[in-house]
Amino acid sequence: MSITVDSTIMELIQAKPESAAILQNFGMGCLGCAIAHNETIREAAVVHGIPLEELASALGIAIE
């Protein structure tokens, strides 16, 4: 499975466990919460006020 900004936070962490530290550096501290199971990376960026391009670049994922 290819991880993109439309993948969920949980899919990202399962595929790339090292991404948890990157997300925490951006202020996303609740990576294991229920919302992370269904919230996409794109949605999380909006909620946390993080530029999507900047987050995607740090995570090494595609913006489609």
Automatic annotation (TrEMBL):
Pfam families: DUF1858. SUPFAM superfamilies: SP0561-like (SSF140683). Residues 3-55 form the DUF1858 domain. It comes from the Archaea. InterPro entries: CHP03980_redox-disulphide, DUF1858, ScdA-like_N_sf. NCBIfam families: prismane_assoc. This is Disulfide oxidoreductase.
